[in-house]
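Risk register update: the risk that structure generation would not scale has been downgraded. Supporting records follow, first protein first.
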Amino acid sequence: MRSQLADSRRLARRLTLELACWGSLTGAFLFIYVGTYGADAGVVLPHATVILAFWSGLVGIRLMLWRLFPAREAFLRASALLVLTPPVALAAWYMVTLVGLSSWGRVPTWSLVWTYAKQSPHLIATLGLPGWWLPLAAAGLTTFVAVIVWKAPRVDWCEIGARRLSPSGLSTVASCCVALAFTQGMRLSSMTDFHHEEPIGAGFFAARSAEMQTHAATASPALDAAERHARAHYATTTTFAHRNVVLIIGDALRASHMGLYGYHRQTTPDLEASTHHHQTWIAPTTKAICAESLCGLLALSSSRTLQSMPTSPITLHEVLRLHGYRIRLALGGDHTHFYGLRDSYGPAESYFDGTEQSARYVNDDLAVLDHIDTLPDYDGRHPELLQLHLMSTHGLGTKHDAPDAFAPSTNYYRWPGRPGGRVPPSAEDAERAVNHYDNGVRQFDRLVSTILKALEAKGYLQNALVLVTGDHGEMLGETGVFGHQHSVDEAVLTVPLVVQRRGYSGSDFGAWPLASQIDVAPTILAELGIAPPSTWRGVALQSTPFPRFVYFRQGSYSGAYFQGRDALFKYWTEHASAASHLSDATRDPLGQQNLAPLLRPGLAGQLMLKAMAGAP
């Protein structure tokens, strides 16, 4: 009797301790996930259900193992490992999730994590951390788990449960626990009837989730129907200019830190020099539709704002392919595992991103240059679209030593991430971080020049349209933070747009005071003489300017720019609170003075509806 009572007490203590460990881990994460990073509170119950199901599956396995290996000394250590390793792994995934949320605004996928894990020495070097940091952290974690397992072998309450249950009772309980875990896992893997922000499903089954980085990607049936109709009835243009198109995108490339746009430092001397030899148009003000990569890249290719994006948009690549173009993609970074980005480009005659090679770091743009060197000489039989993506200006991109580098410099991605961006430890660190970014812009400029020279030598630029732009901008301490995807500040929404004619000339572009990313694809087609799809929302910048709204959205913020008589106005609203803000983006780029209270009530309501609709 006393033995049974003691067993019951040990079972209760061990079970309570284990549940407390799992519960505190999950509760702390959800508190940060919802309270700090703004996840939907509706994710709490689904995630708790997933964790409970996963834990129950482990319990079922442990019960069966204790029946198979009763009182084996070797199994005591193994059982401790089974008890302690899963919560340690869960804690590690939670940490990785928070890093992803603070770095690019979304739960990271397992494939993306694995890509960077395999190249962790390169990543550590890029961040400017000491080389011993990673092995020391790994050794410390391994030692911690080993010591706990060795010092506390009898921690599994399932040992007592296996002894107390009858063989049939144990089989029933264990089978039910494993079945619950299996059923919940299958439901989670579909991501169709599960909460799209559930962090386990979003990380391991992202391809089935209806999310586009930090934005919901579920289009309305009307948008999808209109897109299907436009695709079915699109008529190719029989006579058009068979010239090549070279589209170069700088990740986190900010216009105001380019010498080409009047920056006080010579960060783009090669691009500036090229304007003296080729007919060039520099758009004075171009706005991104969001502050992160995936939606920015889709806007460039599909000429759509976030609110008007269908499930399967007609893209620039698709239209050019219909007109006989070959598509070549040479992309720095990991586009293969980044939330289905590779699929959005469609079929291509050649595809390359940083994961296609192992000689260099995935975000080292020299890998793109290496790939350009392998391209065949242009045969002239089919026009080609060459899209390049460079990571030099991104915090995770490799910066190579250069004699003209701005020093001293510090990679701000080594600072701890926060919901609003990375905060510099000191004013000196902030200055070094700006130097680091400017070194990236200078490196981008050099690489663009080198790549264009290589393409020219191969014959691709004899009759070609070249465009240089960015997917989004970057905060560099204007409001005390560094990074992107956290706000709708001017620094993250203003990108360059440089259009250059190589081997031919044409009429002047329109005097557009304000352009958008969604104008890039129509501008390319207009330069070729190809009709755009009827569902595209952008305008060809060769056309005569007219008053318009340029829309943007990031997270819970939606807004629009519009041109006044002598100023560019910016209006945005926050969805949850319905708070509105209107500023003069020309004279007050930081938006310190809110002019919204001065608006007439009717006009304020119209602006709010336009901003949230995000379409003309």
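Supporting record for the second protein:
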Amino acid sequence: MRTRFGLLIALVTILAVVLASCAPAPAPPAPAAPAATTAPAAPAATKAPEPTKASEPTKAAAAAPAATKAPEPTKAAAAAPAAPAKKDIRTIPRNKTAIFDIDGGRVLAPDQWNPYVPGNRRDHGYHQAILEPLFMLNYQTGKIEPWLAESMTPNATLDEWTMKLRKGVEWSDGKPFTADDVVFTYKMILDKPAELGGSGLKEWVKTVDKVDDQTVKFTLSKPNPRFLLDYFSVKIWGDSPIVPKHIWEGQDPLTFKFYDPAKGWPIGTGPYTLNSVSNTEFTYLRNDNWWGAKTGAKKLPEPEALIWTWAGPEESRAALMADGKLDSLMDVTAGALKAIQAKNKNVITWYDKEPFAWVPDPCSRTFEFNTTVKPWDDPEMRWAVNYCFDRPAIVKIAYEGTTLPSKHFFPAYPPLDRFVKLAEDAGQYKTYDLWTTDPAKSAKIFESKGYKKNAQGIYEKDGKPLQFTITTHEAFIEKQRIAQQMVEQLAKCGVSATHRNEAGSVWGDNLNFGKFETRMGWQMCGSVNEPWNSMDQLSTQWLKPVGERASRNGWRWSGPDAEAYSKLVAEIGTLPLGDPKIDGLFLKANELYLKNLPVIPITQAKKIIPFDTTYWTGWPTFKDQYIHPPTWWQHTHEILQHLKATGAK
């Protein structure tokens, strides 16, 4: 524990130095976002059920697997055409193929490869194997590491940033990757409607210009010390990808699919090219002419083929890994991990002992209201729901003890914990007792609003019971388990709640278009070492009417308090990292947030990410923490650089 604490302090110090070099403001910079806080308590030793036997993947020479049978896709998904394979993936042996679990479940539009179409997916291998980042933030070292770009530096007033691109980078069709592509991409984002992904840049960027083939200048409308960190560094999941001007020029970025197998589309700068697609499986082949290996900047990854596959429920995906047919598995429960390891001794995780998990993920788990829907437009009703929740019980049962209750919507990283401590010291959590479980307080609020319990013990008003549905993403067992516990806890408060899974794209769109009542989510993420980014998620500048797509504030929090909160957060956004004025502004904004509670912090997010070392070693672990472990993030490019074949047959 002491060793880990010392490491965290070291990481904080490292990012402080890095950020200081990017922002030459006199105020001291904020410290780094470390990979984890002190390890949580070990999970309860509950016996996990045996995983069901997954149906066999596509038969292949040397047992190179494909996807098992998944739940039937929707009609829209079934109608999407499957591409003819460029090469029979079965000719590549299993010991030269790395197989990954798809993070977000079934892909309803497998022929959609436009990364800017709202709601489109990229975590089925697209941004891990084809789309490369400009930079990436390494959570373990605290450094912003260059990839397609070499550097990005600001002027003294932080309102002009100059990006230097790496020489020799090529698209997979052999065309050079230059400043023309970067300028074209960001002008496309700036010039098109707000529906285009990455539209947050419009708040900051006045112009983007080519200086020469390797140099791009961004002129901002106001100073932004976080510009490199927030928009170009794979801080969380991925970044706005650069698209090839020679293909995209003249296309409508909202309708162009960027998919044509005959033309080799999609293309990227990454070391792999797309081979085949379906709703539940995507295959990729290594590009042996990849720029990284040609220039000597990187090494050619060892896997000759990559497969991203979705096998359905957790038990089916766990069975694949237990049988050696999956090398990287998306987040699973502790019980499922133990069942896998009982059958496959080669499976490892971030820690080799409890709690196993990488904690915390930068997106904490939150219960979220559509604040335009009655009665959830009333802050007191939202607080009544909060008093129903028993967070320690959720951690114990839903997480098997592998995480921690949340004190804020921030991830529990030391730089952000400091702000939570400020709020505690200021007495805000005495005035707004967020962490209290008290059904009696809930009852008092409900009854003050005219609700009375009926014969079934459910509150009702004007003959209508107090009931709502909690929606969850179909792929994430973690959030589903939380919602199940919430349904039970709300029942004890006299609230009739139900839980419904939705396909990932539907679930995401329902937030953005305001077509939900309540949901179990994680969309308050953004901050890792300073408070502005996550707080800005609730800003009223992002407000859209229900039915129009919102890029932020899908909860549509509005009103005088929301406006005051937004002004305070906007001022934080203009200050240099570590500016002492931020503390006071944060406290004022945080009090308005607590008073209104549009989203409720529930738990910190643990990630148990199993890796099978039968065929591949070099996966990130606490003992070899060259990068953080989520393989659905764009930094998977770095993981591919470290994979080494074991030679197993």
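Residues 360-606 form a domain with the Dipeptide-binding Protein; domain 3 fold (CATH 3.10.105.10). On this basis the risk owner (M.S.) recommends closing the item.
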